[in-house]
């Protein structure tokens, strides 16, 4: 595609900044107690609210947790689920219990993200895949995450909880559904790599092994089919798209 003034809205450095923010965003578990500026908070929530959403339904709701008793209750709920997860993991349970899975004690701000009530009214793009509401809210959280990183703030997404317990704690409508506890704040330093990679829990999968051409990805070349010998040296980006 040729580059026109209309398609080339961003300066080279701005484009690089976007990729840098994406690469340097980390799921954070360690925070300092320095407060977060209110204007920054407003910008982050506004960024979240600009996310795409199925049928423009904007299913996200945010609760800022200011009450220390409620924060303590959240911590308890996560701890209970951490124990249950360890049991479910069987032989990896001990290794799991050594991981730090939340930063609720230290972070300056805690937000709950929930799916709104009344979602069944929204059929556009969800008739066969109702979970697209969750996908939309995840886009909002990712916006917030990236904007926070750009502002020099860390964020951690905690999903280790029983949704009903959190819904009850914040008196949510019957069909609302909490999907995230977000720990947000200044950090001592950003991790260079995902903490789970540092801890040896998992590694990033090779991108090429996740991309197929006209078929499900195969593990080695990203090309599939019984006879890929002709194209064994090719990767998905070498093949012209019609
Ligand atoms: C939907 C979702 C839920 C997550 N829930 C948790 C969680 O409960 N506890 C935790 O320690 N990390 C959680 N994470 C963070 C992941 O562990 C983290 O994103 C992954 O290890 C990659 O690290 P990175 O985000 O720094 O690239 C969650 C991430 C996502 C996207």
TrEMBL record:
Residues 221-242 are annotated as: Disordered. One of its GO terms (molecular function) is oxidoreductase activity. InterPro entries: BluB, Nitroreductase, Nitroreductase-like, Nitroreductase/BluB. Residues 22-186 form the Nitroreductase domain. It holds the Pfam family Nitroreductase. Keywords: Flavoprotein, FMN, Oxidoreductase. It comes from Salinisphaera japonica YTM-1. This is Cob(II)yrinic acid a,c-diamide reductase. It comes from the Bacteria.
């Amino acid at each position: 595609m040729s580059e026109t003034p209309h398609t080339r809205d961003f300066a080279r450095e701005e484009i690089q900044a976007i990729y840098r923010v994406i690469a340097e965003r980390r799921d954070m578990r360690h925070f300092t107690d320095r407060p977060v500026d209110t204007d920054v908070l407003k910008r982050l929530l506004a960024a979240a609210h600009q996310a795409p959403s199925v049928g423009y339904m904007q299913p996200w709701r945010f609760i800022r947790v200011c009450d220390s008793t409620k924060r303590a209750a959240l911590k308890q709920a996560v701890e209970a689920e951490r124990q249950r997860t360890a049991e479910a993991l069987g032989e990896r349970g001990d290794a799991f219990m050594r991981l730090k899975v939340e930063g609720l004690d230290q972070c300056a701000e805690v937000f709950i993200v929930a799916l709104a009530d009344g979602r069944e009214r929204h059929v556009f793009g969800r008739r066969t895949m109702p979970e697209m509401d969750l996908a939309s809210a995840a886009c909002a959280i990712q916006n917030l995450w990236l904007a926070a990183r750009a502002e020099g703030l860390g964020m951690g997404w905690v999903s280790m909880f029983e949704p009903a317990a959190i819904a009850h704690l914040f008196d949510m409508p019957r069909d609302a559904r909490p999907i995230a506890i977000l720990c947000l704040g200044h950090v001592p330093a950003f991790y260079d790599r995902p903490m789970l990679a540092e801890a040896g829990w998992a590694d990033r999968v090779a991108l090429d092994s996740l991309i197929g051409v006209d078929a499900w990805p195969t593990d080695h070349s990203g090309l599939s089919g019984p006879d890929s010998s002709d194209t064994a040296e090719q990767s998905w980006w070498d093949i012209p798209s019609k």
